[in-house]
Amino acid sequence: MERILDDLLEACRRLHAGGLLAASDGNLSVRLPDGRIAMTPSGVPKAKVKVEDLAYLALDGTILSGRPSSERAMHLAIYRAVPEAQAIVHAHPPTAIAWSLARPELKELPSDGLPEVILAAGRIPIVPMALPGTEAMGTNLLPFLPGHRLMILARHGGLCWGEHMDEAVGGMERLEQVAEILWKAETLGGAKPLAASVLEELRALRARIGPKII
User: Fold this and answer.
1) How far is residue 110 from each of residues 41, 52, 123, 173, 203, measured CA to CA in Å?
2) pTM of the prediction?
3) Is residue 180 in some structural domain?
């Protein structure tokens, strides 16, 4: 269990250093072998979170100790719906959020011109906005589970769950990189999709690779 918690703290520092979390924004969690959920605390900058700051919850939402994030509903919704989920990252990647602000009509990030994204993550949907701290943060996710591990939360941030913390953090890093590439492509005249036949082949290969974020 100690290693799992160390990985959680290292993920906080990694995301902060990468500009994906500012101050006390965002929240991370892991599922422990005993069934408890360990989560980053409310109001503590992610770069400074220590193991003694972590909060613990039961899967039914009961707070066992500490002050877990007010956005815990979306973490719990994923853990309840997806037994494979062992780690969750919610961060605030700037360019990914900007896409949902500037293009509110989008249902997913328009990444069908990037073969690596299709193979590594599949489609990246945009989840309808929910007020922070409400139960809707969890219920709005349900139509996207378990088929999607990496998502944009409209006007709010990014969310990635994985079978270990490295997968969840890597997904968040990938999300911001893809969003930035697409933004730059827009300034150069717009991203052009791959041919339909190529997309079909890539998506078939993604299906064979499996659902993990790579």
Assistant:
1) 34, 41, 9, 17, 15
2) 0.95
3) yes
